[in-house]
Design brief:
Blueprint (H helix, E strand, L loop, with lengths): L1 H15 L1 H6 L21 H11 L12 H4 L46 H4 L15 H11 L2 H8 L6 H12 L8 H6 L7 H13 L15 E3 L9 H4 L7 E3 L21 H13 L5 H12 L26
Antiparallel strand pairs: 1-2
Helix pairs in contact: 3-8, 10-13, 12-13
This protein binds heme C (HEC) (2 copies).
The site of one heme C has 25 residues, from helix 4 and helix 5.
Length: 327
Amino acid sequence: MKKYMLFASLSLFSFSGVLIASEIPEGMGVLPTQPAIPADNPMTAQKIELGKKLYFEPAISKSGHFSCNSCHNLATWGVDNQVFSIGHKWQRGGRNAPTVLNSGFWSKQFWDGRAASLEEQAKGPPLNPVEMAADSEGFVVTRLKNAGYEPLFNNVFGKNSVSFDNMAKAIAAFERTLITPNAPFDLFVEGKGDISKAAKRGMKKVSDIGCTSCHAGPLFTNNEFVAFQYGQDLGLKSVTGKDEDDHVFRVQSWRNIAMTAPYFNDGSVKTLSEAVKIMAKIQLDTDLSASDVSDIVAFLDTLTGDAPKVVLPLLPRPTGHALDWQE
Ligand code: HEC
Ligand code: HEC
């Protein structure tokens, strides 16, 4: 009797393809193709191209050395793989650099969410004294003009439009193109590929023990802010001063997580398996076995998508003389 039922259900599933769908825990799914685009910053091909130049533009920094790409290197999955990034005069900041890949999908930017949008975020690093250290917005605008950006801005934003705000808008438009589709997990969901048995066990495990209550949906984050009682960083409390925000950070996405070590807001954890173990202990009070950890890591490995193919842009420069880099 048992044998018969097993046979019947197996054949039913494999004929209809339900077998695959039924294996995938509820909520998980394919990476969306595009993030929401704000009404006041529509995407155009010219704006994206300008944003790409500005993303690679070291002239935004005081020394003429640091670009967004210095710390969010698009050749290494939008990160620098440092514990803390190196900025102006070899200074290091106090937080690990998260990836810019898929950042258009996050509810708010930075580990503590202190920037409401990519546009707002992009205005931070140029003036941050340990990052790009420009003296003022005006300093950046003058640099961009001296480098030869006026016609490029005017094409996109209209006459006399070189401004700090428009720089941020163009960069944000470019960032919204940095999506990583076709991860093995996505192809599996679409019925176009398979993932290993270990990865399937890991997929079920993260759902069964509750990781996906926070790392939820196709982005593997519910985009919310929760307490993570680990390390010295006070998270959102350092912005609001409120006790209820102590150690509160955005739930990080698992997309491309295998490529963005080291882990956590303080970059203190070198391996993904260690990060998984710590998460289970702190967030779920669960001690995972070594085989559970390796299954979960096998699953997380299937979330690495296709990195965006970015053709290195040529930046405007004055002919025959250098720009005024400063100490
Ligand atoms: C010197 C290194 C450095 C430079 C240069 C830099 N960043 Fe960052 N970036 C960081 C660090 C560190 C953080 C995290 C800071 C925090 O959360 O407090 C960050 C956070 C971000 C985030 C938020 C991602 C998330 O998951 O919340 C985005 C987006 C971003 N940077 C884009 C940019 C852009 C655009 C530029 C250029 C205008 C830039 N960065 C320049 C180091 C850098
Ligand atoms: C209560 C919500 C919650 C639960 C449950 C949870 N996480 Fe997290 N996770 C977070 C938050 C918040 C962060 C950001 C931590 C930080 O600021 O360093 C994070 C970060 C991570 C990171 C590191 C991301 C990075 O870019 O450095 C990994 C890996 C991770 N979680 C895996 C898991 C796994 C595996 C489970 C289940 C065993 C799990 N998480 C359960 C909230 C949660």
